[in-house]
Amino acid sequence: MSIRDERIDEGRPFDWGRVSAEYAAYRDIYPQEFYQRIADRGLCVSGQTILDVGTGTGVLPRNMHVYGGRWIGTDISEEQISQARRLSEGTDIEYVVASAEELDFAAESFDVITACQCFWYFRHERVAPAFHAMLRPGGKLLVLYMAWLPYEDEIAGASESLVLKYSPQWSGAGETLHPIDIPSCYREGFDLTHHEEYRLSIPFTRGSWHGRMRACRGIGASLSAEELQSWDREHRKLLLETAPERFDVRHYAAMAELTKRG
């Protein structure tokens, strides 16, 4: 499904379905610390029902299922949900194809709603009251994010520059460690009860980093076949010339925990 959003990449269309296979193979990269910090907050654990909005290939439910929570994942992309179901075989995780704005679960259905790596895509004025309604009293909205640090990591910086060469309008560049921005419309029904930001080093090989970059919105989800082939050659050459076979890439992760009020 092609998406065009004037707030993102200057309105250039993108389609996660085009890179679902790469997303499944190369974007399940959060370290155990990322998940443990969530569980240490008493979130997404046994006895809770969790809705993961914008689940993609189900990375968060699949990796946190071991903590005992009951998960439902939703995503606008049929291809992403297909990959999520394939990768979740043998579990009781449920998946639904739906955008965040179309969700119609019953009131007070969930203890936690998570949004990992997708929060900025939402039409917040519409989803904030819907999330509030779907959460049980005292329920939590948990926003999660992880990104490479291009100004602190040479390989990340060089790869990001190549993304911008092919997609100069890509709005995902230039990340630095900072708290997640929560739009003001959430203040009507939620209190920001916790946030944290921390640095991580994520291991890659040349091949897995190339795959991770190919699954970027500014590359595989939006370039033409000809552009993608050219980027592919250039990025592989860049890595052969500048990166060892195995290396770590500096990232940061962030979470924002909002508690339902009223």
Biggest beta sheet summary: 7 strands, mixed
Classification by helices and strands: alpha/beta
State the strand order across the main sheet: 3-2-1-4-5-7-6
Ranges where pLDDT stays below 50 over 5 or more residues in a row are none
Number of helices: 8
Order of helices and strands: HHEHEHEEHEHEHHE
Portion in strands: 25-35%
Q: Which radius of gyration do the C-alpha atoms yield?
A: 18 Å
Tally of strands: 7
How would you classify the quaternary structure? single chain
Distance between the termini: 37 Å
Question: What are its keywords?
Answer:
alpha/beta, seven-stranded mixed sheet
Tell me briefly what this model is:
The protein is α/β, with parallel strands linked by helices.
Topology of this protein?
Layout lengths: L19 H7 L5 H9 L8 E5 L5 H6 L5 E6 L2 H10 L6 E4 L12 E7 L7 H11 E14 L5 H13 L23 E16 H9 L10 H18 L3 E15 L2
Structure, described:
This protein has 262 residues and is α/β, with parallel strands linked by helices. 32% of the residues lie in helices and 26% in strands. It is built from eight helices and seven strands. It has a seven-stranded mixed sheet with strand order 3-2-1-4-5-7-6. Helix 3 (59-64) links the parallel strand 1 and strand 2 (70-75). The radius of gyration is 18 Å and the shape is globular. The N and C termini lie far apart (37 Å). The mean pLDDT is 97.
